[in-house]
Write a structure and sequence with these properties.
354 residues, alpha+beta, five-stranded mixed sheet, four-stranded antiparallel sheet, 13 helices, 12 strands
Length: 354
């Protein structure tokens, strides 16, 4: 049985800013450029009490929290701290799978320090992060990645939560199905229509019924409701693509997709700022009412310098869709792919501007 830790830095970008500028401590900090097209990269816990969240338009964050202190992001500094944290992880195990600058999975089934349990390893890691970076991290300990990620969010901020193998079923049973990665508003609505609101209710359904309704994902849902996740921690897995998509409640014509394209572009842009590699290709994905999938892509010589420019490129790709204007679409997605190391694409200076 594996012993997995998921470590998640607490309000990472905002916490770095508060650490380095004492005047920001204890105050609502929003890491974002000001402007009608800017999006929130991070919010301190003081700002989150007002409802401010990552990927939210900055102008909305300002309305929610008029006293917020807006700080422009400094990704060079954030990446340096992320490397420092990564070095701490590697003292304990070689099996480290970074998800972004501020979170990672660790397989500590065997650990370098000979500590007696995964819980002890997690406590040591959190203590070292606090001592060496003056920042806090939350951690979840569990038999697999799915459970560890849920656990790391359980006692945030600056918390530790352990799900022991014998406690998995009791822990999962009352949880809402929305805690499963990939269960968004649309899937949650479909499950609600079946009377499935909790993991326990999902577990009680026949797996064949779920497969008939949702294909292979139906089996995956059933497995996760039972706490089964065989995915291994994969060290040094490079980012290949970042994307976001939305399925509409009602099918829409192409001309009506701009608001969603802009919203998805903001989400994707925020996600790209949390990885060290650079994506070169921008992709627009569409699914028609008849479930026909179309993609249009472009590889510009330089990447956009913000979410607004990314949306502008995606909207230009929309103009290359050859179907009639009367065509209705059930889904739209925005993605960035073809990732390379930053030093392999020096022309991308704008993407990593301070």
């Amino acid at each position: 049985m594996r012993k997995i830790i998921h470590v998640d830095m607490d309000a990472f970008y905002a916490s770095v800013e508060q650490r380095d500028d004492p005047s920001l401590r204890g105050r609502p900090v929003v890491v974002a450029w000001r402007g009608s097209r800017s999006v929130v990269c991070a919010a301190s816990y003081e700002a989150r009490t007002f409802g401010v969240r990552s990927a939210m338009p900055a102008i909305r964050a300002e309305r929610l929290c008029p006293d917020a202190l807006f700080v422009p992001p400094d990704f060079t500094r954030y990446r340096a701290v992320s490397r420092q944290v990564r070095e701490i992880f590697l003292r304990h195990t070689d099996l480290v799978e970074p998800l972004s600058l501020d979170e990672a999975y660790l397989d500590v089934t065997e650990n370098h320090g000979g500590l007696p349990s995964a819980t002890a390893v997690a406590e040591r890691i959190r203590a070292q992060i606090r001592e060496e970076t003056r920042l806090t991290a939350s951690a979840g300990v569990a038999p697999n990645k799915f459970l560890a990620k849920i656990a790391s969010d359980w006692n945030k901020p600056d918390g530790l939560f352990v799900i022991k193998p014998e406690a998995v079923t009791d822990f999962l049973t009352p949880l809402p199905v929305g805690r499963i990665h990939g269960v968004g508003k649309v899937m949650d609505g479909k499950l609600a229509a079946l009377g499935i609101r909790t993991m326990g209710e999902l577990r009680a359904r026949d797996v064949r019924e779920l497969e008939s309704l949702f294909g292979r994902y139906g089996r995956r849902l059933h497995e996760l409701s039972r706490g089964i996740d065989e995915n291994a921690v994969t060290p040094d897995r490079p980012v290949q693509s970042i994307s976001a998509e939305d399925t509409f409640a009602e099918d829409l014509p192409l001309a009506d997709l701009e608001p969603t394209i802009r919203e998805l572009s903001a989400k994707v842009w925020t996600a790209t700022r949390k990885v060290e590699r650079v994506g070169r290709t921008i992709v627009l994905k569409l699914k028609t009412r008849e479930f026909r999938i179309l993609t249009r892509s472009t590889t510009p010589s330089t990447m956009p310098d913000g979410a607004d420019e990314l949306a502008t490129i995606a909207l230009a790709l929309r103009e290359r869709v050859p179907l009639p204007p009367t065509t209705r679409y059930r889904l739209v997605g925005i993605g960035i792919s073809n990732f390379v190391e930053a030093d392999e694409f020096g022309a991308q200076g704008g993407l990593f501007a301070d």
